[in-house]
Amino acid sequence: MCLTPYTYTKVFTGENSKTWKIKFLEETLDGEVLNRFSLSCAADDKYTFYAKNEHTFEVLTGTLKCDSTEPALIKDVWTFTNASATLTMILPFFSVNSAIPLIVRTADDDEMVLEIFLDEENKGSYRIHFEVIDEN
């Protein structure tokens, strides 16, 4: 299915805002899933995308922290590049200060899978599986 940028924006944000949580991660090598796992420190994190033109974004990091310096609330912006299907956002378990580019593998109204490659040859990656928990 080919989606226009506007449609993808609505998938991420809903009409006003949409909140997602991580279900699980997969570690891959050459496209094959090697391991499926959960990050307990990210299990209660909530990622909210807002539909405003500013593309604001918040992460409530919950009570379980991946890093002792992780703040309770992270506010930033997200961007989406249609040509490369890249969603750039902060993932606190990677970095609380820097947004990272993630490839959108799939996205629909209630689930999305994002992928980050770990090497220059794009052989190893993590796939992050999200599900919607609230929409306004």
Give a short summary of the structure.
The chain is built from one helix and ten strands. With 136 residues, it is mainly beta. It has one domain: Lipocalin (Beta Barrel), CATH 2.40.128.
Blueprint of the fold:
Blueprint: H1 5-13, E1 17-29, E2 32-37, E3 46-50, E4 56-60, E5 73-77, E6 79-81, E7 86-89, E8 100-107, E9 111-117, E10 124-135
Antiparallel strand pairs: 1-2, 1-3, 1-10, 3-4, 4-5, 6-7, 7-8, 8-9, 9-10
Structure, explained:
The chain is mainly beta and 136 residues long. It has a single domain (5-135), classed as Lipocalin. Helices cover 7% and strands 50% of the residues. The chain is globular. The model has no long low-confidence stretch (mean pLDDT 92).
Key attributes of the depicted protein:
136 residues, mainly beta, Lipocalin, 10-stranded antiparallel β-sheet, 1 helix, 10 strands, 7% helix, 50% strand, globular
> Cα distance, first to last residue?
25 Å
Number of strands: 10
* Fraction of residues in H or I helices: under 10%
Task: Give the total of domains.
Answer: 1
Note the main sheet.
10 strands, antiparallel
What is the fold named in CATH at topology level? Lipocalin
Kindly report the average pLDDT value: 92
Name the helix and strand elements from N-terminus to C-terminus, one letter apiece.
HEEEEEEEEEE
Point out poorly predicted stretches: none
Cα-atom radius of gyration: 14 Å
**Gross geometry:** globular
